[in-house]
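fwd from M.: "can u put these together and see what the complex looks like"

so here's what she sent:
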Amino acid sequence: MSDPALEEKIAALEKKVADLESRVPEDRVTLVVFSGELDRVLAAFVIATGAAAMGQQVSMFFTFWGINSVRRRTLYSGKRLTEKMMAFMAPGSSRKLPVSQMNYFGIGAKMLRGMMKNNNVASLEDLMALGKELGIRMIACTMSRDVMGIRDAELFEGMDAGGVGAFLGDALRSRVTLFI
Amino acid sequence: MSDPALEEKIAALEKKVADLESRVPEDRVTLVVFSGELDRVLAAFVIATGAAAMGQQVSMFFTFWGINSVRRRTLYSGKRLTEKMMAFMAPGSSRKLPVSQMNYFGIGAKMLRGMMKNNNVASLEDLMALGKELGIRMIACTMSRDVMGIRDAELFEGMDAGGVGAFLGDALRSRVTLFI
Amino acid sequence: MSDPALEEKIAALEKKVADLESRVPEDRVTLVVFSGELDRVLAAFVIATGAAAMGQQVSMFFTFWGINSVRRRTLYSGKRLTEKMMAFMAPGSSRKLPVSQMNYFGIGAKMLRGMMKNNNVASLEDLMALGKELGIRMIACTMSRDVMGIRDAELFEGMDAGGVGAFLGDALRSRVTLFI
């Protein structure tokens, strides 16, 4: 015969455990890539590919200047004047990103890339390709895209678009969320 | 009759579950706003108001240059010379924050605000008012305030003041903590 | 006599609780110090020492420009030309770090240090010594070290070296992870 007091305790525990299971972080890492500088974007992709290789589900949200790192071309036609100006001033691809310190009109970025190559460190473009292979989800921030007048055709293929709700949906259940 | 072995197991589980409940993250998001640039402060308030709208308890800690985003006026009398210099050089309100890239003596900030308006995106000041309505807790870092000689009367009304202990008290039980 | 149905439920709960225990964050805080600016490095050490004082196990990963904050001297011999250039341009110790805003060739950094002293706020070097006493683990990013050609003899004594795997190993089980 079962004991009603014990059964009650077990039922209460089951409820609490189910609640805990819904609140404990998943195997998930979420990054906001706000910066559009080679050094910071590199750090983001090193962490993202490392986490994906360790079995984490990785989402990268590209917003503000970070969008410049996932451009594949620049379009001008049909844009407002300010949007054209932004497009003209922004780096047209990851290969043209400046570094955040000692850039000296691009010499710093070239130097960093050269030093990485000398040490057989993967380039940003290698890491991006690796990230795609590892199933990293890349999301363009819809608000940034709209404000800067960027078209999906200007961004990497296979990118999703999402707003702050999509970002928080992933971040709130992540072990690690970083703003880079 | 109850079974002592089972009762013991249940008691052990209850203890473990209570411990887990104290360690699992709460529905809480904590942001450090270290930067005083329009684009970064905007990102902070987009995330903060988004999280509050999704039912998270949100705390924003304004420190270093971030304090400039929550100023309502600048006072000079009774300050040391260095404090006066800081006050003079700092943007006197959120409307005067520069952007982190392509600022060009304020043209970049104006352009960003114009582009946001063209796309019907809420302004920083709208987001700040929304944050207040949504019950976001805004805390001025006491150390930054003291070091820069900023008075509470220079900051938004209704702000709390707190140190690193207050920040960590919130951060350690948050689902997401970002340094912006 | 025990009840097999109850025993089964308890066994299932024990399994779930053990799984939760492995997934809930530890009392741990992990920081990436990417920036090499006095104000940001200060913020990192204020948070790190605060967290350690509150009983958290703290790890700080110094990468890219952040490495400049944990240098104790600069060596030139045996380095490649680009590595020598980097070494020459980088601040040779924490005392030479610039501030991220209003640096004016070092005046800003001196002014910030003076204002901190006036308010009896611990200097960066005090916080670093405190961090060591509190058992904060400091790790130099191996990739940054290799790319910039920095030798261990140029860095603080007692530092560990580690890559993105070491960082994520700590970060994934932390309550708070920040990218500074």
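replying to her w this: Chain C touches chain A at residues 3, 5-6, 9-10, 13, 16-17, 20, 23-25, 32, 34, 36, 63-65, 80, 82-83, 85-86, 89, 143, 146-149, 163-165, 167-168, 171-174, 177-179 (CB under 8 Å).
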